[in-house]
Amino acid sequence: MTSPTLTFTQTVTCNSDQRNSSLLSASQTTMRLNVRLSARVSFQIDNENNPSLRHENTDTVTFVKPVYNSRPAIDRRLRHSQTVVTHGETTT
To answer: Taking a C-beta distance cutoff of 8 angstroms, is the pair 75, 63 a contact?
Structure first.
């Protein structure tokens, strides 16, 4: 799901062998605050059905962090609007 100011992504990974199976799910939402700054909230779940001794079956991690864009979208649009000459034809 994507809007001009909000992006949601999710990744799920499953692994299995004879001794253990694991599932890793990571979700994140990024909200653009202005041209250069966004806020990101991430949540990750790591589950193993047969973890090593003294470890829990499920670990969770939550992140809240700022994201700085050193090359904002406005700069990218300006770069793509440059005039290019190829084989005698001019394109913009």
So the answer is: no
- Beta-bridged to residue 89, according to DSSP, are 86
Which runs of E-coded beta strand occur in 3-36?
Answer: 6-16, 21-32
**Alpha-carbon distance 31 to 7, whole Å?**
6
The whole-chain average pLDDT of the chain stands at 80
- List pLDDT tens digits, range 46-83: 999 888 888 889 999 999 999 998 876 554 444 444 44
Report strand pairing: 84-86 vs 89-91: antiparallel
Residue 29 half-sphere exposure toward CB, CA atoms < 13 A: 8
Question: DSSP readout, 27-87?
Answer: EEEEEE-SSSEEEEEEEEEEEESSPPTT--SEEEEEEEEEEE-SS-HHHHHHHHTS-EEET
Q: How confident is the model at residue 18 (pLDDT cuts 50, 70, 90)?
A: confident
